[in-house]
From TrEMBL:
Protein name: SpoIIE family protein phosphatase
Gene3D superfamilies membership: 3.30.450.40, PAS domain, PPM-type phosphatase domain
CDD domains per the UniProt record, alphabetical: PAS
Signal peptide: none
PROSITE patterns tied to this protein: PAS (PS50112)
Keyword DNA damage applies: no
Classification of source organism: Bacteria, Bacillati, Actinomycetota, Actinomycetes, Streptosporangiales
Pfam families linked: GAF, PAS_8, SpoIIE
Chain ranges of the PAS domain: 3-77
SUPFAM superfamilies cross-referenced by the UniProt entry: GAF domain-like (SSF55781), PP2C-like (SSF81606), PYP-like sensor domain (PAS domain) (SSF55785)
Length: 557
């Protein structure tokens, strides 16, 4: 019903005449009923000043400005009604009852709507037309609410955030309290109870697991959860003795909040009911009516589908995160070299990405260091990360050449063996002995540069060795290698872009912030260094973060 075609049908087939005016009171649209009433075509009226064109005496003189109620309503943008005469194309006066209403957006008047009925000056006709307009406005408000709910729920994949948004839209606009129950494999669970802010402390007592469905119960909530139609409840229904444990919980809840009118509607579709939405009002002067059943039923379908999507996403996210954590191997601690790593999943409501780190000993005694990121934020990205992780380990173990040669070979294999579209990676060899000296040899396939922090608090990004990211198909372009000496007690930090990318800011700002914080932490123990780097970088990223840090031994140790 919210599609443009629906409104076109309403406009064209409405029994009352409708004229839509712009901010200058010029006619921009009229419906067929207005054409018939005024004896003028839409094209002839389009662009004309409504008052000047239609509100004249037969002698073609405009009506006096001051006493004209219609002109006053148009000029002052008032909701008003009256009975008057308008001029037809052939010059005769037509008695009409009219109703004006401003069109606004965010408090700004965009124009006017004038509804007209050819019922003359009959007071009852004016009242009838006003009631008709009020009903249309009410319908518009309700449809707008349904559209707002659909938009709000589509903007998040986090269940708690979706319920919070729903609560802000429904309470107190449509109900004083709402409760959302979901059917799960474990039974029925009340996911949320939302009511007046002054009674927030009461909500937790009613949330959580509910008693099992009783197949013989005839209570309203049980019937809806089992796939029944929406149910309206008055004071008498609320006071009925419960016939099952689940019904007892519902009755206790409704009586505790002082419900006087209740509407319970299924969540989900006719074929698959996933739960129930209970809306309750506590004022006797505003009970739910049958006209609201259709609107709330539509809301229930939207809410059910949205919650189902968020829960499905949550399960997928848990699988991806578990896979990712299980694939992040434990770090070696060769000799006096110290390594530490952290993996921080994306915040709730965001999808898990393909970030990973790795470190392992090579056949020639060097330590391989890896940081990478598969493009994408879903289970496929996590699976692609697993494929690259294993392939790179095997290639690095099998070959003793420079990092660039190994990454070149990996790049050639990616489109043949995996479904990974694009990925970034740094492969480095850490070479040296406990007594030193140490050096880093690496190649960078499109990844943020490593950061070298010296014990005296200087921090430098290692921007050499930059090459194309994996998956471009340009395998004929050779990758460079770079080498840098590593001073004693220096810290080497590899990271993924989730650490430095903050929405709405330049990437250079994130890099400068990381360098500043890392330099200040140069003398901290390695584990504390990693924890503090994560804590000091501002929140706001929707991506996961992987860190790999290495501390070079001191010569005197």
């Amino acid at each position: 019903m919210t599609q443009p075609g629906f409104w076109r049908e309403v406009f064209d087939h409405l029994g009352a005449g409708v004229a839509v005016l712009d901010s200058s009171d010029r006619i921009i649209a009229v419906n067929p009923a207005a054409e018939e009433l005024l004896g003028r075509t839409a094209s002839a009226m389009s662009g004309q000043d409504f008052h000047v064109l239609l509100h004249r005496h037969v002698e073609d003189a405009t009506l006096p400005q001051e006493p004209c109620r219609l002109l006053t309503a148009l000029t002052r943008r008032l909701r008003a009604r009256g009975a008057d005469t308008l001029l037809s194309e052939d010059g005769h006066l037509i008695p009409v009852t009219w109703f004006s209403d401003p069109v606004t957006r965010n408090g700004e008047a965009l124009g006017m709507i004038v509804l007209m009925s050819g019922d003359g000056t009959d007071r009852e006709a004016a009242v009838s037309l006003a009631a008709h307009v009020t009903a249309l406005e009410d319908l518009t408000d309700r449809l707008a609410l349904a559209a707002e709910i659909a938009t709000a729920l589509a903007q998040t994949l986090d269940t708690e955030e979706a319920l919070a948004r729903l609560g802000r839209l429904l309470v107190p606009r449509l109900a004083d309290w709402i409760a959302i129950d979901l059917r799960t494999d474990e039974g029925v669970r009340r996911l949320a109870v939302i009511g007046p802010e002054s009674r927030d402390t009461e909500r937790d007592a009613w949330q959580g697991p509910l008693p099992a469905l009783d197949e013989h119960s005839r209570s309203s909530l049980v019937r809806v959860l089992r796939g029944g139609d929406p149910v309206l409840m008055g004071l008498g229904d609320i006071a009925q003795p419960p016939d099952s444990p689940l019904a007892a919980v519902q009755t206790g809840f409704l009586q505790a909040i002082g419900a006087t009118s209740v509407l319970i509607t299924p969540l989900g579709t006719v074929r698959r009911v996933t739960g129930a939405l209970t809306l309750a009002r506590t004022g006797a002067a505003r009970p739910f009516d049958s006209a609201e059943v259709s609107l709330i039923g539509d809301i229930g379908r939207r809410v059910g589908l949205a919650i189902d999507n968020t829960l499905r996403f949550g399960r997928q996210r848990q699988i991806a995160e578990a896979m990712q954590r299980n694939l992040l191997a434990s770090l070696p601690q060769p000799g006096r070299l110290r390594l530490a790593a952290r993996y921080q999943p994306a915040p709730a409501g965001s999808q898990v990405g393909g970030d990973w780190y790795d470190a392992f000993l090579l056949r020639d005694g060097a330590t391989a260091l890896v940081i990478g990121d598969v493009v994408g934020h879903d289970l496929a990205a996590a699976a692609g990360m697993a494929q690259l992780h294993g392939m790179l380990r095997a290639l690095a173990w099998d070959r003793t050449g420079p990092p660039s040669a190994i990454v070149d070979r990996l790049d050639q294999a990616v489109p043949v063996i995996t479904n990974v579209p694009l990925a970034t990676v740094i492969l480095a060899r850490l070479e040296g002995s406990d007594e030193g000296p140490w050096q880093l040899r690496w190649t960078n396939a499109g990844h943020p540069p490593p950061l070298l922090v010296t014990p005296d608090g200087r921090a430098e990004f290692l921007e050499q060795g930059q090459g194309l990211l994996l998956g471009t198909g340009l395998s004929d372009v050779s990758r460079p290698d770079a080498t840098v000496p590593l001073p004693p007690r220096a810290t080497l930090l590899f990271y993924t872009d989730g650490l430095i990318e903050i929405p709405g800011t330049d990437l250079d700002i994130g890099l400068r912030r990381l360098r500043r914080h890392a330099a200040a932490l140069a003398c901290h123990a390695l584990d504390d260094f990693c924890d503090q780097v994560l804590a000091r970088m501002p929140p706001g990223t929707a991506d996961d973060v992987a860190l790999l840090a290495v501390r070079i031994p001191a010569v005197s140790e």
